[in-house]
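Q: Hi! First time doing this. I have a protein sequence and I read that you can turn it into a structure. Is that right? Here it is:
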Amino acid sequence: MKPSRTSFHVTPLTARPTGHRTQDTLDRGLRVAVEFAPDADATVGRISGDIDVLAAPSFALALAHLTDGGSSSRIIVDMTAVDFVGTSGLSILSEFAESARRQHITWVLAGNRAVLRPVEAIGLDAVIPTCLTVRDAFDRVGKIAHS
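A: Yes, that's right. Below is the predicted 3D structure, encoded as structure tokens:
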């Protein structure tokens, strides 16, 4: 893993034989799991916890990790277990959307009300495709990729 430019570190907790990698911040409750879904040719980043100003560097690193290595041109960011997204998290999502567009990556954000409400309130839903469930996100990422 590339070192972060900040002093905030993300450390691996477990390595599962199924290809799942889980990471947790050292001093916050933000959890990140990255997995590859070969049947859908997609990478899924599962984020949980609060994305506030303290967790923002770890969140940015986790999203950057999803696009590193180019293992998939389809990404689902599962934030259905996120309880809070602050302005710093929204800014990072906006930057990720632009980066994904430049890299020709098809992606969808699956989120609950705590995530989707602020995304919609500031108009990010115009540049970020959103869904309420991961299942819907798989369907949508497939449709976007084929259009």
